[in-house]
């Protein structure tokens, strides 16, 4: 058989697995573009979890009570854990942790635009849990059924934990809403800042998302950016009403004909700017990450040296 | 930026969810040695009472069946339908079988 005939057979097997809605596993043959797309998407997702520790981590030492501090610590630890699940899934595609770390630290791979916005008050901890983690859940629940086995399994673990993240955020905001006028103003101000960036988390509109069709054909993505954005808006509006906050969009209105909420157009130029490095905190986030990596070098080296010595001593 | 040193070996992690169940593979992690692998496994994979027992094993110590998931290794079991109880027809009036 010729090389092309072999390849055609491999492609046919691969397509057949997808056709059955079965999962692709690490040692299956897969088209190089499928592999590359997955590496990029999973890595970007992992980097987002790692960078995502920063905006809220900054508030751990200033939590208003021991209860809130314990919750926030657990949440930030979860983000680290999510990053590690995802790096582990990504490595099954033949890319090393070292490469992935370098791609993040050198800025050649991106992370979610949302983490380039600052957290200016403790209300932001609540808003991030409610809106940012809420948007993440919208994105991630369908990914539990993604076609690549290790990615789907990592997403299932993550989604179980994200539910805690969202609920602790909403509960924090409800508590503030029951407080003083000043606290209610803090909540509203925080929601005003995070609403549009949360909508942008779903990525550019479908008309400007050239990779979506291929990713959906491969079963990597299950819904388009605009479909997920709509779902998020529909879920969130009643939650905002229950909370007693206003979402900062004058065009937001129920459309009975469509059975969905209509909403305004996010500022896509802002998204483009934040993605290309011009967001409010891009430089700060990357500098912090690089510093943390360097400051931890002695720990990694000491552990390696200890392991080498104990294995020489025959333990 | 300091140079990133050679990677710690990869370990596969298995968790026994509760007594009476098998250990199940949950993912992998890097660690400098076995003891650290166990500690990391606890922190990464069992933050919410997911398990009562953990195994970690160096990934390079695992021998796997095949380069892909449809190996001729499993072909011999495919044509032995008589190994399944449903292969045998038993009259309806025979109880407890």
UniProtKB/TrEMBL annotation, chain B:
- Report the GO molecular function annotations: phenylacetyl-CoA 1,2-epoxidase activity
| Signal peptide feature range | none
Supply the alphabetized keyword list. Answer: Oxidoreductase
- Give any Pfam family that matches: PaaB
Q: Which Gene3D superfamilies match?
A: Phenylacetic acid degradation B
Q: What is its EC number?
A: 1.14.13.149
- Name the domain of life: Bacteria
Name this polypeptide is given = 1,2-phenylacetyl-CoA epoxidase subunit B
Species whose genome carries this gene: Mumia zhuanghuii
List the top taxonomic levels of the source: Bacteria, Bacillati, Actinomycetota, Actinomycetes, Propionibacteriales
